[in-house]
């Protein structure tokens, strides 16, 4: 299967990128880099893709395992190298689960399945960054 994305220059430092979902997103540099800051930053989008990919897996598994979760969020904290080309050499992925009746063992299994088996974006990140995963249960 092939993905084909078209990213069109909007002038100055702004671009618009399409997506198979039919939704477009705007990319723009910040004022420090000659842009207007009216769009998303490319490197940060990679972190959103990582969290979104794993989050979709975990949400699907929460439903499949019939787990009680009131709320769920993922924080991704990445270290950018100093030298050009700058890239993320380490990323911490924090899974935060909220609820009064959390099944910690099954939630850990859901996260493990995502990070070890299902999440392709996680596998891509593994090729260039050290990944650290933590789970937080808030009852």
TrEMBL record:
<protein>
    <submittedName>
        <fullName>Putative redox protein</fullName>
    </submittedName>
</protein>
<dbReference type="Pfam" id="PF02566">
    <property type="entry name" value="OsmC"/>
</dbReference>
<dbReference type="InterPro" id="IPR036102">
    <property type="entry name" value="OsmC/Ohrsf"/>
</dbReference>
<dbReference type="InterPro" id="IPR015946">
    <property type="entry name" value="KH_dom-like_a/b"/>
</dbReference>
<dbReference type="InterPro" id="IPR003718">
    <property type="entry name" value="OsmC/Ohr_fam"/>
</dbReference>
């Amino acid at each position: 299967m092939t993905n084909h994305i078209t990213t069109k220059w909007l002038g100055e430092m702004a671009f618009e990128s399409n997506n198979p979902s039919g939704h477009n997103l705007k990319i723009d540099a910040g004022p420090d880099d000659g842009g207007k800051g009216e769009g998303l930053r490319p490197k940060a989008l990679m972190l959103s893709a990582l969290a979104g990919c794993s989050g979709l897996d975990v949400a699907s598994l929460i439903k499949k395992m019939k787990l009680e979760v009131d709320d769920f969020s993922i924080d991704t904290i990445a270290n950018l190298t100093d030298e050009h080309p700058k890239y993320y050499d380490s990323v911490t992925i924090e899974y935060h689960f909220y609820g009064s009746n959390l099944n910690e063992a099954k939630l850990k299994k859901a996260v493990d399945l995502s990070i070890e088996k299902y999440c392709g974006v996680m596998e891509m990140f593994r090729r260039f960054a050290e990944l650290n995963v933590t789970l937080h249960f808030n009852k």
